[in-house]
Amino acid sequence: MEIFLQLLINGLMLGGTFAIISIGLTLIFGIVRVVNFAHGEFLMIAMYGVYLMNLQFGLHPYVAMLPMFFLMFALGAVMQRYIIQPLLSASDEIQIFATVGVSTALMNAGLMVFGADVYSVDMSSAVVGTGMTSIGSLTINNGQLMTFIVSILLIGALDWFLKYTFLGRAIRATAQHRDAALLMGVDVKKIYIIAFGLGAGCLGLAGGLMAPQYPVFPTVGTFFVLTAFIIVVLGGLGSLHGAFLGALIIGVVDSLAGYYIAPDLKEVVYFSIFIAILIFRPTGLFGAGRGSE
Amino acid sequence: MNITQPQNYVSLLLLLLMLVFPVVAGSPFVYHIFILVFSYAALASAWNVVGGFAGQLSLGHAVYYGVGSYTATLLMINFGISPWIGMVAGALLASVISVFVSWPCFRLRGPFFALASIAVLEVVRLLVINQHGLTGGSAGLAVPLQQGVEWMVFRERWPYLVISFGLLSAALFVSWKIKNSRLGYYLIAVREREDAALAVGVNAVRVKLAAVIISAFLTSTVGSFHAMYFTFIEPGAVFSLELSIQIAMFALIGGLGTISGPVIGTVLVLPLAELARGWLGDFADGFHGFVYGVVLVIVVLTIPRGLVGQFGARVGALINRLPGYKEPETVQPSTSTLTHVQSETLGQPILVAEHLHKYFGGVHATNDVSLTLKEGEIIGVIGPNGAGKTTVFNQLSGFLKPTSGSVRIRTSYGEWVTPKSPAEFAKAGIGRTFQIVQPFADLSVRENIMIGAFMNTDDHVEARAIAAEVAQLTDLTDQLDKVARDLTVGGMKRLEMARALATRPRILLLDEVLAGLNPSDITKAIEIIRRIRDTGVSILMIEHIMQATMSLSDHVAVINSGSLLIEGEPEKVVKDPQVIEAYLGKEYSHA
Amino acid sequence: MLKFNNVSAGYGGAEILRNVSLEVKEGEVVTIVGANGAGKTTSLRSLCGLIPLTSGSIEFQGQQINGLQPHEIVDRGITLVPEGRQLFPFITVRDNLLMGAYKKTARKDAEKRLEEVLELFPRVRERLGQYASQLSGGEQQMVAIGRGLMSQPKLLMFDEPSLGLSPLLVSQVFDIIRSIVQSGTTVLIVEQNIGHTLRLADRGYVLENGEVVVDGTGEQLLDDPHVKRAYLGL
Prior knowledge:
The structure holds three protein chains of three kinds. Chain A has one domain. Helix content of chain A is 72%, strand content 3%. Chain A contains eleven helices and two strands; from the N terminus they run H-H-H-H-E-E-H-H-H-H-H-H-H. Chain A has helices at residues 2-32, 39-57, 61-84, 92-114, 142-164, 166-176, 178-183, 188-210, 220-235, 240-260, 266-280; strands at residues 132-135, 138-141. Chain A has a two-stranded antiparallel sheet with strand order 1-2. In chain A, strand 1 (132-135) and strand 2 (138-141) form a beta hairpin. In chain A, helix 1 (2-32) runs antiparallel to helix 8 (188-210) and helix 9 (220-235) packs across helix 11 (266-280). The longest helix of chain B has 27 residues, at 204-230. Among the domains of chain B are: 25-240, no CATH class; 349-438 and 505-590, Rossmann fold (3-Layer(aba) Sandwich). The interface between A and B is large, with 46 and 47 residues.
């Protein structure tokens, strides 16, 4: 029982990390209606960015993630403006190829600049984000706990922004009915740029939050992005709450399957869930209403 | 294939030149590059059958490649079976797997199909790694180095060159065959507008499955060959997303859905990246991938139709100036399709709909509609916008299932049937047009009509002949070679009719074929509809242009708020107070 | 106030509007009628900047507005209540209405304006917290009109406001439009329910195949043979 509880906690904490990666992906899909295959490479860039800021200026990753949010916002906005926007009316294939191309180019650029080596932020002198907290015989990784908390706060903040501001309302309206939003006087292109920027910006935060636990290497994005795709589809593409729940589910599945089935088959379990969801319930488990088609 | 046509002999010559070049150059590196080019071009061509012709964007094609690699290698290691046999066995296995993988995924669109294909690839890769006992796990397998033709392992390079060239030729031949067959047209039809394809009797699932099976088979053979050429396989390299993306990318750069595109894309991009690797040494870690990515983005932003899609027509025209060019033969219009048949059943019911009800959520879109169309008759259906006329049409052609009620059709053998799917409705004799025109925009008018004609023949010449005949009837003869997207509104509406007519329907459902036409086009279209009826086709038409409805219809049915308001002779119907109210509002009828 | 000068427009090479000239004066109610496919909706969409003109020009309050982005046209005070309502399905009725006040100049008075709109549509008040997609067709039409009013338009346009509604609801919708007119807003209506529309309108234009064939006052048009032919083939 104790093992099970510990596994459950581990799973939920891992879910927090998955959530912070998935929020941006679901945001971008829900609004711009583009599946960003380069999402993983954006994460890689954020992680290198945090690593470099730590190395050069000694910034704690939790501090570095704030400038990183804005840098990633800018990167996302540029990607939307110069690559996605010209292709908005193009076919699905073309949009997919565009983001796949960006993904390939960025991943290999990472390889050229940093080589295949694995870098970790030096956390030895850091006070927060390291170590474990024990509750009875159960332990929680402090860094993961922080990630978990921030992902909840981030979803709360995004929720508030989308519900109670004119801009946020316009973003939701554009996602649901582009033409009608145009008729309300919404500058739809600008909305898309903001949405893509926000989605990428979330990864800036993710880069900082993950730095204490995860090393960075050129293909780190691929490792996480496939999981993020699963989560986002599971939760219903475009749904923030769905993405969070999906992340927790996959985190727990990961943790339990790794222990009770086999460590190298845990991904098979959740990829199988993914395929089943795509085929039998393409709107996701929680995607019955808003945001999903 | 007619060898004296310039486009054909130039293509063949270029291919042969590519085969001869490395032999003349002689260096092992050049050999290696060309072996890679041939085999990757074969992969890209095979992928193109699904990704291009069928428009299903698979990013998991490495599954079939890996199945080929592992099957051939394992059979060789464990049973001493020649990789030539292993190649065939692997290809068959890949084909079987492709059916199981793709069937459930066909309902997924665009990015979702791509994501599912990636997920399948990941699952297969992880399973292969997991089964260490059989597959050697993530460490991979070495191919036993037994030299000789039967083991597909050679000391020299040239036999590999020949084999890879053979694989490419096979892939190209198959692509060419598909492109010029009924299957090829059906694939384009399903890709571009599935509804329009269904309406002319295309079984979309079967067509897509055929493409997937062919593609998986070809991909797998290259996988087997590569295992023998590299003499080493590992899950990370063969079941790789990167490989899947690469071959898709070559096809896109060259031009999706073209025959030469995948080859041209590979020839241009692959050596570039390989050479860069040679020049730059260690720094090139990642450089070739970076080049791939950047080229892909540039191509997508500047020439999304690929090199061949963008420049193919112009280059083709240049090549056609070479000696030997002959215009395609003009085909005599057939006269079999639409000649007037003295029918003994004229005036008897041919299409009967009884008590149709249709609910969308809580909306009662069709409320107890019953209609009987008699053979040789024209019924006009009128009613305000949003009254549910098209919903009724969709039930009469199988695109919507009525919530309750039945649709029956009398076949040419005199039996009454109730078809299940749009394609079955088409085969039972229903032709239909769409209110919002659904041309296959990139195909010529002739090809559009031929897709309809293919319902009754798989012969090209016969389909062309039917197209020519139908074009005469619909005044499209001098536009046959025009691309459909360049037609005027009137032309598109006539093309809708022509495509439906080419299936030799006995019942034609016309959904607002006159809307948006100018007066002279309307007169023309009315004349055409009358001609069609005179060939023995029974017609049900939704029409707002009253002048047409009044002059053509034997009967007029008025639908309002989902139910049949009244049916009867045209003059009587328009004087009916209920009808006037439905159109003009209550106050007007009192005024 | 609004002027079409020899406007031609269409989609993908096909010209749907041909040389259309029309005019709406301040405070007037003008209607465009015609059969399906005659170009009524196209004329409104080109006015909103959703499709480019192939020739001619559109003027609003003396300034040329063709070529502007749709949101810039909304900023000038032109709002369309589109055909088929086009509400945002999965956001609340309240947020749908507030979206109507998105343009900068309307934002600060949005809450006040919302109250005024709710006065006009008491039934909508009960539905404020529900998703727009949960409303009946009639209620959705009320919200769509309300959303249009939220922008405090100088010119409010309706595209087939009676589409898909029962006769009783159609009368209600026209009563509401009448009260909007009385409050001084200039109105342009495209309708197939011409009985109601022509009684309400000061003037009307009949479109056939993308061209204006007749124009005149509402009553003149009600008796016009062209109108009867377009609708009933008489």
